[in-house]
Amino acid sequence: MSKFASALVEWQKQHGRRGLPWQGTRDPYRIWLSEVMLQQTQVAAVIPYYERFLRRFPSIEALASASEDEVLQLWSGLGYYARGRNLHAAAKAVVARGSFPGTAAEIEELPGIGRSTAAAIAAFAFGERAAILDGNVKRVLARCFGIEGWPGEKAVEEALWGRANRLLPQNEIEAYTQALMDLGASVCTRTPKCSACPVSRNCSARRQGRTAEIPAPRPRRALPQKCVTWLLLLNRGQVLLEKRPAPGIWGGLWSFPEAPVNDVGDYCAAKLGCEILTKKKLAGLEHGFTHFRLQIRPLLCHVAKTPQLESPGRLWIGIGQARDAAVPAPVRKLLCRDFLHLLATR
User: Fold this and answer.
1) Percentage of residues in the chain with pLDDT exceeding 70?
2) Tens of pLDDT along 95-106?
3) How many helices (H) and strands (E) does the chain have?
4) In terms of domains, do 194 and 323 share one?
5) Considering only CA atoms, which of 226, 215, 147, 216 is closest in space to residue 184?
6) Assigned domain for 219 exists
7) 35, 108, 128, 172: which one is catalytic?
């Protein structure tokens, strides 16, 4: 075992994270679920979702037999909703296969699972000697071994994967893998705590005083803005929701209809079967995505509806029920505004 791996394993035994709900198990379903939820999401945010998910779907068979709406309802608020859709699709694939795949290469073939996630699942569930390389681990390796550049660049990515594979120990792969995750999450952060790091003595970035420069940040660019008008259509205490197409933003979730600003009345009549009785502009919302920012302009409308124009992709639902449905965070935020409930009952 290399000095790097040995130092991490010993550090993990003393200082690594303990007692997380997905630790202490070899169940690939529970490990897989946690690894998917932890992608680009902090542990504290994941724990309640993970526990609630397992109460509702205690096995991969239960998840596979659920509807997509049920899955996304529990995922609502966790973000990156393609993860939830892929999780559901992968559960169906595993059940059809007859068992959970037992190697990183096979696990990577499931929907929504990349190379690093597959390796983590294989290491924790089956003890496979496989290298991980999530964002935190990239930062650890780049600093320690002086790998410069932005990790999103192909050459830098290849250098990091090469180093990750060469460092793999022959034994204690689970402890080593967990140590890498813990070190990147709690010590080798953007503002590193070098005094608490077990490998700081040999860290290239620390020796050169360049921990703020390595790894290089993602090249900055102005995010484009997209503006949409959301129609909060109220009728007798109910609100109209539309199911968003997948793939796409919030694919498979329920949201408010979007309409062109200049002909809202015509749009409602022709497309939604609604006659607007009153309308009121509400305070706008802004929601950030990786590649753009969404400016939301909510328009609250009391309407008379024509039921025969409803479709399978639309539904009228009570505001209380809508809050608990599979809706994205900005929709839930609007539904939770106290005055909306009061207006809906008038």
Assistant:
1) 95
2) 999 999 999 999
3) 16, 7
4) no
5) 215
6) no
7) 35
H-type alpha helices, 57-102: 60-65, 68-75, 82-97
Write out the two tokens for 332: 């839930």
Q: Half-sphere exposure (CA, 13 Å, Cβ side) for 142?
A: 29
Q: Are 272 and 283 in contact (CB under 8 A)?
A: no
190 with 46, same domain: the answer is: yes
174 in active site: no
State the Cα–Cα distance between residues 322 and 89, nearest whole angstrom.
25
Instruction: Return d(Cα 340, Cα 346) in angstroms, integer.
Output: 10
Task: Give Cβ neighbours of residue 251 (< 8 Å, ≥ 6 apart).
Answer: 81, 82, 85, 244, 245
Q: What pLDDT digit, counting tens, does each position of 231-279 carry? A: 999 988 899 999 988 777 888 899 999 887 677 888 888 888 888 899 8
CATH number at residue 125: 1.10.340.30
Q: Tell me which residue range forms the domain holding 261.
A: 225-344
Is residue 48 within 8 Å of residue 55, measured between CB atoms? no
Residue 201 shares a structural domain with residue 289: no
d(CA 250, CA 243): 9
Give me the number of domains the chain comprises.
2
Residues 133 and 234 in one domain: no
CATH of the domain at 307: 3.90.79.10
Sign of the C-alpha dihedral computed for residues 324, 234, 342 and 298 taken in this order: positive
